[in-house]
Amino acid sequence: MSTLLIRNGRLLDPASRVDRVADLLVVGGRIRAIGTDLPAPEGAAVIDATGKVVAPGFIDVHVHLRVPGQEYKEDMRTGTAAAVRGGFVGVVCMPNTRPVVDSAPLVSYLVDLAAREGLCRVWPTGAITKGSKGEELAEIGEMYEAGACAITDDGRPVDRAETMRQAMIYASQFDLPVMDHCEDKSLSGSGCMHEGRVSSALGLKGIPSASEEVHVARNILLALETGARVHIQHLSSRRSVDLVRWGKALGARVTAEATPHHFTLTDQAVADMAYSTNTKMNPPLREEADRQAILEGIADGTIDVIATDHAPHHIDEKDVEYPLAAFGITGLETAVGLALDRLVRPGVISLEQLILLMSTRPAQLIRRTPPALTEGAEADITILDLDRTWTVRAEEMASKSKNSPFIGWTLTGAPHATVVGGRLRMLEMKVIAE
Ligand SMILES: NC(=O)N[C@@H](CC(=O)O)C(=O)O
Ligand SMILES: [Zn+2]
Ligand SMILES: [Zn+2]
C-alpha cells in the first residue's frame, strides 16, 4: 500500500469540525497523521496542497455506468475514470442496464467488477420492480444482502401507488432508501422539453412540471404513512422543492437531490443552444423561477445532496432531431467545477455547505460512514483548487460519451486531486489508472 503526504492544504471537514492548514499523511489506505511539518516517510508520494482545499471525498449518488449491457456508452473503467477525474471517490450506479439489475447475482456481479476494474468505489442499486416494469417487486432483501445500497427504477417511474407503498414497506425492513424518478407518464407523454413559453415558441412538445410534482407529493405521503426513507431523484421544479420542504416539516423521511444542470441552466438553453440535444434530459431543464427555487433549496438544506445523473449516450443517439434524441447528459467531469463556479463563488452556499452536499450527506443517504479528515479514517479525499480557471473540453473527458452541454464553458474552480482508499487516482485533472 502506498504512502502519501498531502502538504500544507486547508483541511476542511465541517462534519468533523476540522478547518486548519496542515499536512495529512496517508499510510495503508488510512489517514495516519494530521499535523504541521510532518516529515515525508521514505518513498512517500508528496502532493503540495498549498492554497488548495483538502476535503472529505466527494460521492455522487446518481450515476449511469451502463454496465452490464451498454458498454458502447460507458463501462466500469471509463465511468469510474470520469468519476475520479471529476473529483469523486465513489459513485452509486443506477440499475437501468441491460438486463436491469433486479436480482442479487447482478448486484454481486457489479460489486466484483468494480473491485477488479473500478478506479473509485462503486455502490450498486437494485431495481424496485422486476425489469423495472412497475409490476412485480424485485427481490429487495436478497439484493440488499448482496450489497445494494438503495432501490430505484430510475429511468422509469413506479406508476402504481400501491406498488410504491409495498416497496417502501419492504425496503424499510432493511432501512434501505427508496430512490424515485418522479414522473407521471400520462402527463409527460411524448414531450421532449419543459412545457412552457419556450416549448410553445419552438413548437416542441412539452413535459409539464406537474408530471414530476404529482409523484413527489405521492411519495412523501406514502413515506409519511409507511415510515420509509424516500429519496427524490433529480428534482427540477419549484413546487417539488416546496413539497420536499413541506414533507420534511411534517416529519417524513424524505431527502432530495438536485443536479448541476438544473441549478445552472433553464429551458432557454434549448433555444440558445440551437436545439442542441445535449439540452435534452429527464426531467427537463425548467424555468428561471424553478432554477431559483432549487438554489434556495440547496442553500436552506431542503435539498440534501448534489448528484450528477451522469447519463452517457452514444453520438448516434444524440445526433438526431430533437424529439428523437435520447434523454440524458454526462455530468461527472463538470459537477465540481459548476458547483464551485455557480454556487460557492457567487455565495449561494459556503464551501462547508458544498462539502456537506457532495460528501457527508451523500454517504449518509446510502448508509455508509461519511468520509472524514480524522486520524484513522479511510483515506477518501478530494482536493479542490478554487482558483483554477479551466475550459471544459470533450477531448479531455475520460467518459466514453461526450454528451455534455457544458463543453466549451470556462469555469473557475476545479477538482485538483482524488484519493480513493489511500490511492492517488487523479492529479490536476489527469486520471492515474495504476
Ligand atoms: N436522466 C436522463 O435523461 N436519462 C437517464 C435516465 C434517468 O435518469 O431518468 C438515462 O439512463 O439515460
Ligand atoms: Zn431518472
Ligand atoms: Zn438517472
Automatic annotation (TrEMBL):
It catalyses: (S)-dihydroorotate + H2O = N-carbamoyl-L-aspartate + H(+). Substrate binds at H64, L65, R66, N96, N282, H313, F327, G328. Keywords: Hydrolase, Metal-binding, Pyrimidine biosynthesis, Zinc. The active site is at D309. It holds the Pfam family DHOase. Binds 2 Zn(2+) ions per subunit. Pathway: Pyrimidine metabolism; UMP biosynthesis via de novo pathway; (S)-dihydroorotate from bicarbonate: step 3/3. Its cofactor is Zn(2+). Zn(2+) 2 binds at D154, H181, H234. Residues 51-239 form the Dihydroorotase catalytic domain. Coiled coil: none annotated. Its EC number is 3.5.2.3. GO terms for molecular function: dihydroorotase activity. Zn(2+) 1 binds at H62, H64, D154, D309. InterPro entries: DHOase (IPR004722), DHOase/Allantoinase_Hydrolase (IPR050138), DHOase_cat (IPR024403), Dihydroorotase_CS (IPR002195), Metal-dep_hydrolase_composite (IPR011059), Metal_Hydrolase (IPR032466). Catalyzes the reversible cyclization of carbamoyl aspartate to dihydroorotate. Belongs to the metallo-dependent hydrolases superfamily. DHOase family. Class I DHOase subfamily. This is Dihydroorotase. The lineage of its organism: Bacteria, Bacillati, Bacillota, Clostridia, Eubacteriales.
